[in-house]
Specification:
It is a single chain. The chain has twelve helices and ten strands. With 332 residues, it is an alpha+beta fold. 32% of the residues are buried.
Length: 332
Amino acid sequence: MKYTLILGNQAYSSWSLRGWLLLRASGIEFDLEVVPLRTGAFDRFVAGNHPARTVPTLVASDGERTQPIWDSLAIAEFLHEHHPRAGLWPESAAARAAARCLAAEMHSSFGALRSELPMNVHREYRNFNPGTAAQADIDRVLTLWNWARERWGGGGPYLFGARFCAADAFYAPVVSRFRTYGVALDDAARRYVDALLEHPATVEFIEAGKAETWIMPENEFDDLNYSIQPREATMKYAVMFEDNDDFAHKRQEFMADHLRFLQDNADRIESAGPLKNARSGDPAGGIWIVEADDVAVVEALIEADPFWPTGLRKSVRVLAWTQVFADGKKLI
């Protein structure tokens, strides 16, 4: 089996770090392509690897067929099936189940941590104070680390002992964030952070990221003025969807893909949810609140949503929105 691993900017793409570590730390050979996010090169990657549209994407070829695998959990399981001796998951069934639980929770949760502490290997901040939700995410991560290491760590440097596994790969981006934002840690957590950051595969990835010349301004902050808001809001938009009853069956069929899309774009789509008829309770559409530089970015997000090509969306309105009241307080 021949592999090509496609990553986003190594300075900023936390999900890409996961895919990289799954292969590099396991000694699995692969070719590497890096496509900078939100560029024409990324659009070409999407066009050439349908239906993949996120990074990391692993392109596997057996000489007869080529298959893209574009989800980091799916990549971990695919590699485990094809390389069972690579040690991607712990050997014991109990530890393996626990490692998968930790990886799955990291994969699907911690939205506030991701939003307030975006990955950036270029910088280190020392005056960052996380918001309440982000601190709750940080506390939960530390609880999971302690739980795994107390039961299966055995004094080794990683979550499940002496050997690096897929669960470590999933938490490596968080470790990078903790270093970037100077998150306060106890001694045990600090030792784990140091172990992951000193792993040769992590070092290689971060050094490559530091050498990149692509800059994503929304991930770069003034160290002296940085607070819990990752960037100034240039504009907020309310996106109103009306759904087509004739394609209502597509909603459930593509719901999992739609929810993953929202998670992948949480840095832009601040809120999202369904609309229902107030009297009948029947589904009627949906609404997003999006923060973006201009309306073109919003339109691109709409067209990238898995619901969009299915015919489910009957119409859509994009409206500029100014928030003037929240949490019982006037904002402007």
